[in-house]
Backbone:
């Protein structure tokens, strides 16, 4: 196995030994970031369901101690935790959750993470005497499609809530209205898949109004769809007041906006995945915020080729070579330590049983393709992560679906678990990274696991989410 040293060819900034580098050298002044990227309209005033969230909010309130009247800034959104028992008792609450769970061929749930994530908000509502009308999508149906029915979710929902959930056979209409009318305080009615209606994704006002007519107020707890302006995520807010965030949505935004906007430093971001094009926005945004940026996955070969290296038959986006060069230059200009792998695991074909070997990143032979980061790179990345206080991870280091090429991704997952146990804030930003930490069995020790793939990416890019913007502003808190 060839051993390679880190060099400027693979790192936007020449990297000295991490062990010999003081932590302060990785730090960028907090004021530098705050002046360039203020938080925009995203945040929460209430944190009743999450102690970590309470800590963040309390810290923010303390920071306003010299302000004469206002406490929480106007960007904050109203939370379900702001509503009192009097606000909820006997009220019909339309709750948009993200119950889009995977099902096997026998219609059995194979991963109930999203269902469990929705439970705290629902329990809070029913414990305060609300009547919950629960809405979600499942898959990408074309009209009424039986295999995408939410019926298989009812037993697990009922078990987790400790009550029998009633299932409607439709989303709107007279039969649904009758079920809503008969719903007792503390009861839960699960509507059918809201995407059975094409009007949902088109956000047609008439359909949104029909959904809203079922309830007295609205709670959005579906972070995974908050980046979509659909009838059940954005349209209904025009007809229901108050419209507030659920505890899951609240927590997602606190970590992905709060912790990333004002991180404990040094702050590292790990970005992987197959293509630069799918992560351009994320990389550019994180270069404004982080002190260390680690890149892995198939995208690295575009960066290598942009630097004049041979990449064999590895995945390369030819039209993104200039962009890769500009990102490396931008990292250097901003003082961000951007680390690319210095060695890679290559294969003679894209297959789980491919012949493989480890080579320096500068020595990939023709006909071979890179499918994972190598052991020297893992060590370099781990050493860098040892210096951090906050880490966010989005995207695998290699083709982790194949065990032979999952070593790099699993090593990162294990390292994050290790430093999380030492008090480092570790945020898994959705998508394949979540699958990786679950595969390794370390998900439970991470600070936060995001339930949204596309929503996480858009938020990390600095985009505003329609499903969040549509919610009521929080009432400023006097201090």
Residues:
């Amino acid at each position: 196995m060839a051993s390679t040293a880190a060099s400027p060819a693979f790192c936007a900034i020449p990297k000295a030994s991490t062990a010999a580098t003081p932590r302060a050298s990785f730090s960028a002044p907090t004021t530098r970031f705050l002046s360039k990227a203020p938080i925009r309209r995203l945040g929460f005033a209430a944190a009743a369901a999450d102690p970590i969230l309470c800590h963040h909010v309390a810290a923010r309130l303390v920071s306003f101690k010299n302000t004469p009247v206002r406490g929480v800034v106007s960007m904050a959104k109203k939370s379900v935790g702001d509503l009192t028992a009097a606000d909820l008792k006997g009220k019909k609450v339309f709750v948009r959750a993200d119950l889009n769970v995977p099902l096997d061929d026998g219609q059995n749930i194979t991963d109930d993470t999203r269902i469990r994530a929705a439970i705290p908000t629902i329990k809070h509502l029913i414990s305060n005497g609300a009547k919950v009308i629960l809405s979600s999508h499942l898959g990408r149906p074309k009209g009424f499609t039986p295999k995408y029915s939410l019926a298989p979710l009812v037993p697990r929902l009922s078990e987790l809530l400790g009550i029998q959930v009633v299932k409607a056979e439709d989303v709107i209409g007279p039969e649904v209205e009758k079920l809503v009318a008969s719903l007792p305080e503390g009861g839960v009615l699960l509507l059918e898949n809201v995407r059975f209606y094409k009007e949902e994704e088109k956000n047609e006002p008439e359909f949104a109004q029909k959904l809203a007519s079922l309830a007295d107020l609205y709670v959005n707890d579906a972070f995974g769809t908050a980046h979509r302006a659909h009838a059940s995520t954005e349209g209904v807010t025009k007809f229901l007041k108050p419209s507030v965030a659920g505890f899951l949505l609240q927590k997602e935004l606190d970590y992905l906006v709060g912790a990333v906007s004002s991180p404990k430093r040094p702050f590292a971001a790990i970005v992987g995945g197959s293509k630069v094009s799918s992560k351009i926005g994320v990389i550019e945004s994180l270069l404004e915020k982080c002190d260390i940026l680690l890149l892995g996955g198939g995208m690295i070969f575009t960066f290598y080729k942009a630097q004049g290296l041979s990449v064999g038959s590895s995945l390369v986006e030819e039209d993104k070579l200039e962009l890769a060069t500009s990102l490396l230059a931008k990292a250097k200009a901003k003082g961000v330590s951007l680390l690319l792998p210095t060695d890679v695991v290559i294969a003679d074909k894209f297959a789980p049983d491919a012949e493989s070997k480890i080579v320096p990143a500068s020595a990939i032979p023709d006909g071979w393709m890179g499918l994972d980061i190598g052991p020297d790179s893992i060590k370099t990345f781990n050493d860098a992560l040892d210096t951090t206080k906050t880490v966010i991870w989005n995207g695998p280091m290699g083709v982790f679906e194949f065990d032979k090429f999952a070593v790099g991704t699993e090593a990162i997952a294990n390292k994050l678990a290790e430093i999380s146990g030492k008090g480092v804030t570790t945020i898994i930003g959705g998508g394949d990274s979540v699958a990786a930490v679950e595969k390794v069995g370390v998900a439970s020790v991470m600070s936060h696991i995001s339930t949204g793939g596309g929503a996480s990416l858009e938020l990390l890019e600095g985009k505003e989410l329609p499903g969040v913007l549509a919610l009521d502003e929080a009432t400023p808190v006097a201090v």
Summary: The two ends are 62 Å apart (CA to CA). Confidence is low (pLDDT under 50) at residues 1-75. The CA atoms of residues 302 and 319 lie 9 Å apart.
